[in-house]
Design brief:
This protein is mainly alpha-helical and 198 residues long. It has helices spanning 2-11, 13-23, 27-37, 39-52, 66-94, 104-120, 130-156, 160-193. The mean pLDDT is 86.
């Protein structure tokens, strides 16, 4: 079922959003989706950083130690899960402002399925060139934003005009969350908790 939704979100997103809305799946289903999908970039990042090595420009490949690669992959996995919950909470919290009354499960579905392309773009780490991973991530983010704009009116049961403003607010808040995460990561790394290189 999870794989059907993933295919549908890429092949025919509006119809798939309607299908998700009609099924009223459980919180367990939305959680299992995000828990499974979040493994993809984490496993790819672990393998790339410990086995393949990262290359930036013409420099030699840089490798992390096994323990550092595992630690960063676990931290990445937890970060994705926390970010999905934060996005779901944000969607749920802002809903009343835009005339919607979703359950938290609907908000979690919207967050989980919207984030899927951005998360799955992490598979690009298997070709560990910074420019390639960056382009894949930007493409994933762009499609996630498209899914958000197309999914909000359907799952939140509001007119498209209001849905556009609602989705724009969620995108803005999501970008702020991303900047906070990046700043926090930089602070942690510069205070002695950075990875160990081989």
């Amino acid at each position: 079922m999870i794989l059907n939704h993933i295919w549908g979100l890429y092949a025919h997103p509006r119809e798939e959003w309607k299908s998700i809305d009609e099924r009223h799946e459980s919180m367990t289903f939305a959680l299992s989706h995000i828990l499974i999908i979040a493994l993809i970039p984490c496993v790819a990042a672990y393998y790339a950083s410990a086995e393949l090595g990262w290359s930036i420009g013409a420099r030699q490949a840089t490798y992390l130690t096994q323990s550092s690669a595992i630690t960063l992959s676990v931290a990445m996995y937890l970060g994705i899960i926390v970010a999905a919950f934060a996005l779901a909470y944000l969607i749920h919290w802002m809903a009343k402002t835009f005339g919607a009354a979703p359950t938290f499960t609907q908000s979690m579905e919207l967050a989980a399925y919207t984030a899927t392309p951005a998360i799955m773009s992490g598979v690009a780490a298997l070709y560990p060139e910074l420019w390639f991973v960056t382009m894949a991530f930007l493409a994933g983010i762009a499609y996630s934003v498209y899914l958000l704009y197309s999914g909000v009116p359907i799952l939140m049961h509001i007119p498209e005009e209001r849905g556009f403003i609602y989705a724009s607010s969620v995108v803005t808040a999501g970008l702020i969350m991303l900047v906070v995460l990046m700043v926090t990561s930089a602070m942690v790394w510069t205070n002695g908790f950075g990875p160990q290189y081989m």
